[in-house]
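Long-time lurker, finally posting.

We've been working with Apple domain-containing protein (Pocillopora damicornis) and I want a structural starting point before designing mutants. I don't trust myself to interpret raw outputs, so I'm hoping someone here can both generate the C-alpha cells and explain anything notable. Sequence follows.
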Amino acid sequence: MSKLTEIVYCGIILLLECWFSSSCSDKGTPSAITVNITCDRNLYLYVDGKYLGGDVADAKQKHYLTNEIMPHSHVVAVRCTASTPPWQGGILGSFENGLVTDTSWRCTTSAAYGWNMRSYRDDDWPMATSHGANSPSTFPWGNIDSIDKKAAWIWSSDNKDDSEVFCRHKLVKECTEEKQSYFQTPKSTRDIAIQGFLLLKVRVAGVIECGLKCGQNSACVSFTIQSSDIRGSRLCELHNVTTESHPQSVVRKEGYQYHEVVQTFY
Ligand SMILES: *[C@@H]1O[C@H](CO)[C@@H](O)[C@H](O)[C@H]1NC(C)=O
Ligand SMILES: *[C@@H]1O[C@H](CO)[C@@H](O)[C@H](O)[C@H]1NC(C)=O
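Top reply, 14 upvotes:
Generated this for you. Predicted structure of Apple domain-containing protein:
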C-alpha cells in the first residue's frame, strides 16, 4: 500500500483504529534470489510445492547446492534424509534475501500430502532445533564457507533418531499475517504522556500522521499526541515503551492522548 492509500484507508475507517502493513508482501519475493544449501545427507528442495533441486548434498563432504529461486515465490520447503545410523541429521542454508536456516523454521518428521506447498498450514509443526552454528567447531560438519555464518544446522529436536525431516519457512512476510493497529487502550489514555524513551518528536496534522510516523519507525510501540483542541499542528511523540512495560515513566500531561501499537497475527 502506498502511503497515500494508507492515509485515505485509515481516514475512511475511523480515527481510533487504523491498519498498517509493515515490511510485507503479498506478491512474494520481489526478485530472483539464490540459495546455498546443504544437508546431511540427501536433500530435496522445493519452492511453493515445486521441486527445485536436490540429491546427495552430503554436508560432511562440504558439498552444497546452489539454486536460483524465481521472483514471486513464497515458501521454501526442504526434505532431508540422513545417511546411516547414528543418523545425525542437519540442514544448513542461506538465501540471498537474508533468510538462513535457524530456529524460526518449522521441522516435522512426518509430513502430509501438500506439505511443501504454499497453502499448507504448518502452524502445528514444531519449531526447528539448532544442532550447531555454521562454525569450524560444530561436529561433525564444521563450517561451510559459502553459507552464511548466521545459519544454523537445523533438524527436529532429536537428530540422532529422526532419520528424515521436513522443514519449511516463508521467503517473505505476508501481509495477511501481520497487521498493526494503533488504538487507544481500554484503560484511560487521556492526559497521559511518557517521560523519556523518546524516539522522535515531530509536529503533525493529526493522529493518523502520528501513527504513520510510528509505523515507519521499527522501534516505535506507542505514541502520544496533543489533543485536537490545539489549532494547527499537534505535537507527536514516538516511544519505544508502553505504559504497561514502563508504568514508572507514565506522567500526567494535560491535553495529550496516548496510543499503543497492537500487532495481530492471522
Ligand atoms: C553462495 O555461494 C557463493 C560462492 O561462495 C557466494 O558468492 C554467494 O554469496 C553465496 N550465496 C548465499 C545466498 O549464501
Ligand atoms: C529506547 O530507546 C532509547 C534511545 O532513545 C534506548 O536508549 C533504550 O535502550 C530503548 N529502550 C527500549 C526498552 O528499547
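Before you design anything, note these points.
DSSP finds two helices and 17 strands in the chain.
The first strand starts at residue 18 and ends at 20.
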